[in-house]
Write a structure and sequence with these properties.
Blueprint lengths: L6 H4 L2 E2 L15 H10 L2 E8 L5 E3 L20 H5 L13 H8 L5 E5 L12 H10 L6 E5 L2 H10 L5 E5 L11 H8 L11 E5 L6 H8 L3 E7 L2 H7 L5 E4 L6
Parallel strand pairs: 1-2, 1-9, 2-4, 4-5, 5-6, 6-7, 7-8, 8-9
Antiparallel strand pairs: 2-3
Length: 251
């Protein structure tokens, strides 16, 4: 089973890259990625699938919040997404391939594969395959994760040499269409062993969960998301080995 390289534990990780609250540098976009590299941070990015099967670097399932376009992300081709204008004034949602070319090993990349099933179920595959294709031959430090354990299992099959983990939380609050019964299952992080994971990235204000303590005692690396102040960072680091952050600069 691959292990998590030390660089993922020693460099704070910029959440959706080092954006500025989507004022001039949009999250998950090229200038935010360049800013994170310049500051020496790790980079967390999100992947969604274009209509023509390309792994694209974008968080939301809809275009409305970040771009001047409207509607579902998944209805647009990669070429269409590359021409969209962000509300920051930037143009173009990048593909994973383009981001990998830009980063070129200069920063560790923590890649979250967004759920494509809609309920954290088993209806996945195309995004995982597109991700593996883009990563083929890339030599820089990469770790893969997802809230959907089925996605993590598929990445274990496609990229067995890359470290993988589970993005986890207490599943309380706004979690979209995920059914209550499925939330209750995922809350206990039951798939850690079967996915061959070597880390979790857990909701920072739920790090005191007994399950997190159990996994840490078993040797799992504990990362966390999303820390937004130095005070919260100090609290999170009492348990977590590293943080994903936004809205301030860790020292």
């Amino acid at each position: 089973m691959p292990t998590l390289p030390d660089v993922f534990l020693t460099r704070p990780i910029a959440h959706r890259a080092l954006h500025d609250g989507n004022v001039t540098r949009a999250e998950n976009n090229m200038s935010a990625i360049e800013a994170a590299i310049a500051q020496g941070f790790g980079i967390e990015i999100d992947l969604q699938l274009s209509a023509d099967g390309v792994a694209m670097v974008f968080h939301d399932y809809a275009l409305d919040r970040l771009t001047e376009a409207r509607g579902a992300f998944a209805r647009c081709t990669a070429q269409e997404l590359a021409t969209l204008r962000f509300k920051t004034g930037e143009t173009g949602i990048p593909s994973l391939h383009e981001v990998l070319e830009l980063v070129n090993g200069r920063a560790p990349l923590l890649i979250e594969i967004k759920d494509q099933d809609g309920a954290m179920g088993s209806n996945i595959g195309p995004l995982e395959e597109a991700t593996a294709a883009a990563l083929s031959g890339y030599d820089g430090p990469v770790a893969l994760m997802s809230f959907n354990p089925h996605s993590v299992v598929r990445m274990a099959e496609l990229c067995p040499d890359l470290p993988r983990g589970i993005t986890s939380s207490n599943w309380v609050g706004d979690v979209g269409p995920v059914p209550m019964a499925r939330r209750a299952e995922l809350c206990g992080i039951p798939d850690y062993d079967r996915t061959g994971a070597c880390f979790i990235s857990h909701q920072w204000d739920d790090l005191s969960s007994p399950r997190v303590a159990d996994l840490k005692a078993q040797g799992a690396h504990i990362l966390c998301w999303t820390v937004k102040s130095a005070q919260s960072e100090a609290q999170a680091r009492e348990i977590a080995e590293n943080i994903t952050f936004e809205g301030y600069l860790p020292t």
